[in-house]
From TrEMBL:
Belongs to the ABC transporter superfamily. Keywords: ATP-binding, Hydrolase, Nucleotide-binding, Transport. It comes from the Bacteria. This is ATP-binding component of ABC superfamily putative alkanesulfonate transporter subunit. One of its GO terms (molecular function) is ATP hydrolysis activity. Residues 1-20 are annotated as: Disordered. The keyword Nucleotide-binding applies. SMART domains: AAA.
Amino acid sequence: MSAGMAPVQAGPLTGTDPLADTDPFADGHVAIRDGAIRLGRGDAAFDVVENISFDIPGRQFVCILGPSGCGKSTLLGAVAGHLALSRGSVSLDGRAIAGPHPDRGIVFQQHTLFPWLSVIDNVAFGMKMKGVGRSERRERARALLAQVGLSDFAERYPAELSGGMQQRVEIARALINRPRVLLMDEPFGALDAQTRLTMQELLLDIWTRHRTTILFVTHDIDEALFLADRLVVMTPRPGRILDDIPLDFGRPRDRGLITDPRFTAIKQRCLALLHSDPGHVPLARLSPIGVPA
């Protein structure tokens, strides 16, 4: 484990769950129909994704895999409500997504924590914006910090944390709003390899507790296969769905999975899909708000 990285000491699955009063009928079902996104104006306009259609059943963990610049993060931005589709529709539990909303939490590759707020106040910030009292929002924030192994860092500030710890705070901050969907844009991409493995295991533990729908963007095949129930592979820009692969490895998962012959076979399949166009030149990566990342 990297220096400065606190060990994962998540609380037990029993006891108070800060998401316990989540609406059981709000399943987090995401649907995109004939989706297309075009960015820019005039001669500078370009198609980012086109002809995208898929369903994500509630509480499913889906990874989107594809080459840099293929529109993975842009698609995430449409589900978040930060970007409008040029054509088609995107909905959550049957209702059209028309803009950002707390029912969709988002975690970026680089942390967006407020440097002037303590860890606990960063996590509780969304509840503060809803008018929840200080005592209640701090209680919920502490419960989530316990689940991400940061109880002892509640009064620290972001600059005092390692990169992995900052991302743990981001996850807790996204979850405190009780989202139906958690959108994750290469959240571990900037971490060292060992910390990244630790964060993947932590994320699976948290998902087991809350079972919110997760849409996770990555360019790492091993990460996608280890985490997801299902893998959506995209073509180079303009991004289309190249393949949709169910991952029936069973849960819980551990690192022994990477030596499973089924894991290796699907990895080879993904590599073949991603390298089907040897002349392809990777394009600049865009963030979920449609600007260069």
